[in-house]
Write a structure and sequence with these properties.
Elements: H1 2-13, H2 21-32, E1 37-41, E2 47-52, E3 58-63, H3 70-86, E4 95-96, E5 105-109, E6 112-120, E7 125-126, H4 134-151, H5 173-178, H6 186-203, E8 209-212, E9 221-224, E10 227-234, E11 241-244, H7 245-255, H8 264-281, H9 286-313, H10 325-338
Antiparallel strand pairs: 1-2, 2-3, 3-6, 4-6, 5-6, 7-9, 8-11, 9-10
Helix pairs in contact: 4-7, 4-8, 6-9, 7-8, 7-9, 9-10
């Protein structure tokens, strides 16, 4: 498992020369037959370009890190095509075929073989830039349940990959903490990790598993600018994996705790907004709910540890900015308080 994590982390820090915009446009012109304008977007691992054609059509060109296994790129494309068949109205990107009918293309840039794919661009406002509300969180919970149902039965060989953002592997945070000598509140993080990891390791394997999105966070959910309680889209399937179904619920619930939240009671209410709405679409089992508080705590811890790992180890990416000390302290306190919470619906 450690070697798998090494490989995954390599896609975050492996040195690679960014693909120039003009080279990306040449690729799009030759392989997709389009003549768009392009602007660069940020990304944790992929290089992303927003493309706009003369007739107003918009796309996203995603170029995978050269360290990423091409099978994982295929996994994401296959999932989107499965969703197009299982729930055609689900608001997520669609795969754009190249001139040969393929779902992705291989090319060489700066001596490295790369994989690119093109998706349709979804309009909307990122939830992270919106006004938060209970109705909005409930809408996200319903979207999560809908995604679960649409992905049910989908399988792919690359789904068994080990990724650092899967709460199944919370124990690996100890290794990332050890690599961060300047991590704030280290004792609190280590104590929380020591308490949560045994529970996850012993209980999670016995619960329901399937392929899940695994990253419904405020930067991957779109809302209607005119009605910010209405969710209009979900993007970025790069952290998909086969894991416990309740882990996916916990990720969404943890990520939608308002950033200004400083107390466990408010955080618990936000979690319940998401979980109750999800439960209405996909009923959760008592054995899953028992572990939910611990999984939310694990995700809160992971967001801090992995975020700061990026800041310290991969500062050139620009995708992660240093976190405020007060925010980190509040998140660790909430995680500690939610760890043993029994979520009742």
């Amino acid at each position: 498992m450690a070697s798998d994590v090494n490989t995954f982390m390599a896609t975050m820090v492996a040195p690679t020369r960014p693909v120039p915009i003009e080279h990306a446009l040449t690729l799009v012109r030759e392989r997709y037959g389009l003549e768009p304008r392009a602007s660069r977007l940020t990304g944790e691992r992929d290089e992303n370009f927003r493309l706009t054609t003369a007739d107003g059509a918009e796309y996203v060109l995603k170029i995978a890190n050269p360290a990423e296994n091409p099978a994982e790129t295929d996994f994401q494309a296959a999932a989107l095509m499965h969703l197009e068949q299982s729930d055609p109205a689900l608001p997520c990107p669609r795969v754009v075929r190249d001139r040969s009918g393929g779902t992705h293309v291989r090319f060489v840039e700066a001596g490295l073989e790369r994989t690119a794919r093109m998706l349709t661009y979804l309009p909307g406002r990122l939830l992270g830039a919106s006004v938060r509300s209970r109705r909005q969180r409930a809408a996200c919970g319903r979207l999560g349940a809908r995604l679960t149902l649409a992905l049910r039965g989908f399988e792919h060989p690359a789904a068994q990959r080990t990724i650092v953002w899967d709460v199944r592997h919370t124990g690996h945070m100890s290794r990332l903490l050890a690599e961060q000598p300047r991590f704030p509140f280290r004792p609190a993080a280590q104590a929380l990790l020591a308490r949560v990891t045994p529970r996850i390791d012993s209980q999670l394997p016995r619960l329901r598993h399937q392929i899940v999105h695994n990253d419904l966070n405020p930067l991957n959910i779109l809302v209607d600018p005119a009605d910010q309680d209405r969710v209009t889209g979900v993007i970025d399937f790069g952290d998909m994996t086969r894991t416990a179904l309740i882990a996916d619920v916990a990720v969404t619930a943890a990520e939608l705790i308002p950033p200004e939240c400083s107390g466990a009671a408010e955080a618990r209410d936000a979690v319940l907004d998401v979980v109750a709405a999800y439960h209405g679409g996909v009923p959760l089992l008592p054995t899953e709910l028992v572990l939910l508080g611990a999984l939310v705590a694990a995700r809160l811890l992971m967001t801090l540890v992995i975020h700061e790992w990026h800041v310290q180890r991969n500062p050139a990416s620009g995708h992660f900015k240093p976190l405020e000390a007060d925010f980190m302290r509040a998140r660790l306190q909430i995680a500690d308080q939610l760890l043993n919470e029994e979520i009742r619906l």
